[in-house]
Amino acid sequence: MSKLSGIGASAGIAIAKAYRLEEPVLTVEKKAAADTAAESARFDEAIAKSKIELEKIKEHALKELGKDKADIFAAHLLVLSDPELLNPVKDKIQSENVNAEFALKETSDMFVSMFESMDNEYMKERAADIRDVTKRVIAHLLGVEIPNPSMISEEVVIIAEDLTPSDTAQLNRQFVKGFTTDIGGRTSHSAIMARSMEIPAVVGTKEATSSIKNGTLVIVDGLDGDVIIDPSKETIAAYVDKKEKYDLQKAEWAKLVNEPTVTKDSQHVELAANIGTPKDVKGVLENGGEAVGLYRTEFLYMGRDQLPTEEEQFEAYKSVLSDMKGKPVVVRTLDIGGDKELPYLKLPKEMNPFLGFRAIRLCLEEQDIFRTQLRALLRASTFGNLKIMFPMIATVAEFRQAKAILLEEKQKLQDSGAEVSDSIEIGIMVEIPSTAVMADVFAKEVDFFSIGTNDLIQYTMAADRMNERVSYLYQPYNPAILRLVSLVIEAAHKEGKWAGMCGEMAGDPLAIPLLLGLGLDEFSMSATSILPARSQLKQLSKEEAVSFKEKVLSMSTTEEVVSFVKETFMV
Prior knowledge:
Layout: E1 2-5, E2 7-10, E3 13-20, H1 36-64, H2 67-80, H3 83-96, H4 100-116, H5 121-142, E4 156-160, H6 165-169, E5 176-181, H7 189-197, E6 201-203, H8 208-211, E7 217-221, E8 226-229, H9 233-254, E9 270-275, H10 281-286, E10 291-296, H11 310-323, E11 328-332, H12 359-365, H13 367-380, E12 385-390, H14 396-415, E13 425-430, H15 433-437, H16 439-442, E14 448-451, H17 453-461, H18 479-494, E15 498-501, H19 512-518, E16 522-525, H20 530-538, H21 542-547, H22 549-553, H23 558-569
Parallel strand pairs: 3-4, 4-5, 5-6, 9-10, 9-16, 10-11, 11-12, 12-13, 13-14, 14-15, 15-16
Antiparallel strand pairs: 1-8, 2-6, 3-7, 7-8
């Protein structure tokens, strides 16, 4: 038995066999074909097996992720039926008397190279499709299994170096009981998705893939950030007990689903959820969310080969607003850049994309894209309680320009006879230190603030939150961060405006007492964090939390703050 320590990224306990999700080694060697007819038949069989797999993956993607994601696999199936690719492979087997995998690799490499050299994003994407499909077929020819999380059919714990958002989205909760990775943090995309899917996860263990073999019994403790490898019977029994207690706790939280969020001294705060697609609203309502505090609209633009139309966007926004039945919905305008790319936009590569041409900067320059989104939002505004938020605002001038464009589009729609709500609040995401410092100026012009701590922390501390070497500097409780948060909230309240937070910090049990004391009005988090947060807030006194505000802000280190919170509020 051994133990790895990491970061508890998604709460819960999972006990199951390890399933290593890793890229297979596909070494193709040139060999003479003893029987070219048999070799061609072997190639046909590998194609057939690949088609069956891709059909299953496509069906799963359609059911779980929607048509956009399923279309990716539909494109892969087209490649497998394309005579322009298949016939040259068979010709090469026959004419050169070579094995099928070598013939396929040579042919596909030629097409990939040709397509990638074209100055056309669509053709470059076809190159990616050919590469992915070829890998699958070659794996069948070599007898190598390609792990696929959507096809797992027994209870397992996923072991991986990292999981992409698409990997995580394919996990079947019926069988995948948890996962652990070598890298990542609480704010990585896979961690956020794991929380939304309620899959226990421990990330950043550094050595999960080097320490855990396929089939080994593993315990993932997402509560404390531990991974137990090959546990003893006594350890298993202890964790079964811990899991049962946690499940009972979740049942208690579930009783609060229709309760208002009030503190021990009867002060109300709003608990909202962060979502990425209209389908996520179901989870918000099931977990008692009082609002959507962040609708990440960029997911409408991702996983496709062209921009979404105004009508597609209108339908998505209308769906969310209608389903929330009058509860507030804060929609963030397009936030592309950094680690979120759109290949079809042909944006230049940047040395530091997180500090580059992204979010509102892109929208103010590519106004056709921005105006299309704003029109869709404005048209949808009559179906619910819409609030529009601009991301990555660094200067007052940027906000004024973005707001002016919004008001221009509103006027055009009204002039054309379209209905538009007259009660849309316009706010900004505070994620740049300069904006937090100038919050008193911004507060005179915006209707609300939403503090994006995921980026605010990394920009303030000059530490990439995805970089393991400097992850120790990603400190939500650092007094510097708390002072900036306090500046923003105070500035909002002085002007009679409200301040929310849509970073992962908002749902952090250690941060909640601090944020309550700083006067935060709205806490927006993963939907599955809402009920635990509501339970915690019911046990806290706002008056007491506020009384400790100055003491906390005068502290010197993260360690001091954490120690104080644990001693004062979590005894």
